[in-house]
Amino acid sequence: QVQLVESGGGSVQAGGSLRLSCAASRRTFSSYSMGWFRQPPGKEREFVAGIWSGGPIYYADSVKGRFTISRDNAKNTLYLQMNAMKPEDTAIYYCAAGALWAAQLMNGSMYPYWGQGTQVTVSS
Fold first, then answer.
1. What is the DSSP string of 62-91?
2. DSSP 9
3. Could you report the per-residue pLDDT of 59-68, keeping only the tens digit for each?
4. How far apart are CA 34 and CA 57, in angstroms?
């Protein structure tokens, strides 16, 4: 029903930047909560950032001050600007969407729609 496609992944040196995009189908995009999650090698999926349709934004402590989540409803696109990247940021990054309450943003199990993921690799 809602398709999400991530792009912008790749390799970067520590301290560098990448900008991820998540293109969504137009239906109900502006009313959906959106989130970014990542799965580092050998670890479980973890929350990165989420933005509620009503305004609140949450970040994982590990990315606060370095990553910025934003959305452009006119373009049906979610973004994740990643600056000052560290090797521990290496992971497959996924975008997700759902009609969620703000308090549910950090819980990946609450998102019914997911993209295919994009690989991000940060070297020392």
1. TTTTTEEEEEEGGGTEEEEEE-S--GGG-E
2. -
3. 999 999 999 9
4. 10
